[in-house]
Amino acid sequence: MRQLLVAGNWKLNGSLELVFALLSGISDRLSEVGNTEVAVCPPFIYLEHARRQLQGLEIALGAQDCSDQQQGAYTGEVSAAMIRELGCKYIIVGHSERRHLYSESDATVAMKFERVRESDLIPILCVGETLEERESGHTEMVISRQLDAVLKRSGVGGFRHAVIAYEPVWAIGTGKTATPVQAQQVHAFIRGRLEAQDKEIAAHLRILYGGSVKPDNARELLQENDIDGGLIGGAALKAEDFVAIAAAGDA
Ligand code: 13P
User: Distances in Å between the alpha carbon of 231 and those of 77, 138, 155, 212?
Assistant: First the structure.
């Protein structure tokens, strides 16, 4: 019922040369992917290049972040409306690297989520706990806090056209993946929280897992009931691995 989505978050990686090669590699192998939707999120500066290269291909484009402001004297910022002009469909908001390295608060993330919606794009809202939070039994509390900030601002209706990505911070770039059972538990918890407010929205909401997803662990993760795709970091920088992960969703 929910179409799987596998999105590559390229983070601060790339060069014009790499963008070209990576997109060529992905498009050359795209026939290996069945029903799963494929998206790539390169750095802002390469979005226009990617848009041109992807024309006519079934690969969606996304940005990794956007400003919490619409326009004005905010040096260095990029608005959701600008990103829309570049043919993007998705914008990632609240990635843990933004939350932790750039001190983005839950309220800022909620504001960005709203900006994405105002521009008729689809936010990919990242949530997730640190190792310390997990070990002290606070996973659900942290996820609830992160979700509630967005619910408070946008209401449950804000999730009608949105995607959530559960990315446990301890699994990002560490090679340490959440087990399918661990991930499924949190995904079910997230869906349950939204279900309490609107059953239909919760049933349609895609919840991606992110954190050291690789071709050899993708299938078992994507088979879980409430895991509707993946947000891929490191493995998204190798066309072969990225496409293998997307293809694993169809198995
Ligand atoms: P890795 O796949 O490199 O662990 O990164 C996950 C991530 O942060 C995607 O947004």
Answer: 24, 23, 24, 9
Specify whether 138 is catalytic: no
CA of 198 to the centre of ligand 1 (A): 30
Token pair, residue 45, equals 């500066």
Report pLDDT for 117: 98
Name every protein residue with a CB atom under 6 angstroms from any ligand 1 atom. 9, 95, 167, 172-173, 210-213, 231-235
CA distance 151 to 211: 24
What local confidence, expressed as pLDDT, does residue 251 receive?
A: 66
DSSP 61: E
How much distance in Å is there from the Cα of 211 to the middle of ligand 1?
Answer: 5
SS3 5: strand
Residue 124 phi, psi (nearest 5)? -110, 100
pLDDT at 72 over 90: yes
220 an active-site residue? Answer: no
Question: What is the DSSP secondary structure assignment for residue 156, as one 8-state letter?
Answer: G
